[in-house]
Specification:
single chain, two-stranded antiparallel ribbon, 303 residues, mainly alpha, elongated, disordered C terminus
Amino acid sequence: MIWLLLLTVGPFVLGALLATLSWMVRGRSRRSADPGWGVLAAGAVLVLGGLAMQLMAGPVSLPLDLPIDAWQWYSEIQFAIPLLLGVAALVLAAFPVENRKGTGSADLAPRTAMSFVRGRWLVAPALVLAILLVATVTAGVASRPDATTGRYTAYFVSLGGERSMGTSIYGWFYSVPCLVLVGLLLAIATLDLFLISRPALDHDRDRDVNARTSRARNVIFIGTGALLVHLGLVLTSLAGASSLQSQLSTLEGDVTVWTSFAALQPLLRIASYASAAIGFALWSAVALSATPSRRRMPAAAGA
């Protein structure tokens, strides 16, 4: 029971600890004087939603005694939950939307959605997205229609003749809607960055640039975290499929049959755990960034 709890909730706890340590070491200097209610709400959605998602996947959900239909519904949307949380958080992170026209400081340089984004911030999400697409297509191609529902959620291995062994996998039934959500996630993230960069700069230019850079960083963290947590679930499904095995009785004795990628199971397990932990760390970092920095009050004249 304790081992199962650590296995399911462990990535969230590890991610939160990593984010907290990073924040204590260097994150305080990155805080904005006024992070805004949007970041606070987004951080709450990510942390509370992520924790609830992990608890539902572990032994804590067993005493709830939910109806079979409820469990069936949850199993159908579980892969989409991180992406849905990411979309909701990105919508909240867009607020407050500044409407500053002509009252800020002059800035002749054209501003784009990438104006407050550093190039190196995009390396990680691009790499995660590429790995996610490869894993998604691989699982989708390997999936077959389930004998009962007809949905592409099954994985079968032929044992010769009419015999076969099978299990569930992240097939097209799950991945196609998730790919749509990934596209929506990227679109909203781009819109957020555009809304952050569009208004004219405030008279306190340095403070405004710092605030916008912090908001842009949070947008990248939210999107990348959603992709990583989702990737963790996909890799967990592939690890489960790789562990499939069966024992056959032959004239020469019992023979154990594995899948063609059974040797990858340990690597897939570790990768899924690490992916989820890093994703939760990014989400926790967003929540911690909502902590306002202390402003230094100017000294009184003649003091």
